[in-house]
Amino acid sequence: MGDTAGLARLRVDACGAFDHAAALATLAAHAVEGLHRLDLAAGTFTRRVDVDGAEHLVTVHLDAGGASLATPSQDPAVHAALRSLVTHWFDLEADLAPVDARLGADPLFAVQVRERPGLRITRFRQPFDAVICTVLGQQVSLAAGRLFAARLVAAYGSEPTADGTKATADGAELMPGGESLRAFPSPAVLAAVPTKELRDVVGLTGSRARTVHEAAVLCAEHGGGAELPERAALAGVHSIGTWTLDHLALRAGTDTDAFPASDAVLRRTLTALAPDAGSERIASWSPYRGYAAARLWAFGL
To answer: What is the span of the domain harbouring residue 82?
Structure first.
């Protein structure tokens, strides 16, 4: 780590290969306007993150070896938290050797494993972000889900604070415009918003607004959004079903064997590449079915 121009620079190396292009493509597919700024050509994105109740602007550059971070914060505790966050975010600690051995034995993945090593699970930054964005994306197109999320962030996301980030956003280390980004609204903030207001402001159906509200209340009561509530608790939220639960287990939790079998993209990919792939074949990928899902999604990236 170094420090010039008022910025601290941190490094997190991947355990082995890292298909950073796939991670960036996943970020792009789920990008929310006003929440983060992404430059695919440079392999760089900027967003605000919460560390112990304080917001910090961070720019992350992904490469084949891992991730480099730049932040105005000079606090070693913040640096440690950011390293941990990015490590989990991009699954950088995982040893993929046994994963690739298991999946590479299936003809469906054999060529892809050889040609694209290091394909990891790209997770959401925080469990609460994942819960709400996943709910907003239920039974609608990805574009519609992103639009709902952007409206939610614009209406309820915390505004930038005068923390000096603008002065140090020199365009080389922190992307231009990053200082204007909002942070994702907290569970407490959304839990206090009436369902009717959520419906009207974000453009949701009454049913989906109820789901967002109930999910916010649940997360506010369980770790303040920093932890994914238990599956049974999430299943008790209005209109949260199996697809949402499996998706969250994979992309917001730590279950690398979760497989959202009803996911539309996964179904289309399996139908196109392996129309005879039934439950037994999918079961043969265990305990790495989450990585199988990531590889199936990557066929379209």
So the answer is: 2-298
- pLDDT, tens digit, 9 for 90 and up, residues 26-71: 999 999 999 999 999 999 999 999 898 888 999 999 999 999 999 9
The H or E element that residue 60 is part of is strand 54-63
CATH of the domain at 6: 1.10.340.30
Strands 36-39 and 44-51: antiparallel
Identify the CA nearest to 270 among candidates 250, 295, 247: 295
Nearest to 155 by CA among 3, 32, 290: 32
67-87 burial: b if 16+ Cβ within 10 Å, else e: bbbbbbbeeeebbebbbebbb
pLDDT tens-digit readout, 199-245: 999 999 999 999 999 999 999 999 899 999 999 999 999 999 999 99
Using DSSP, state whether 41 is helix, strand or coil. Answer: coil
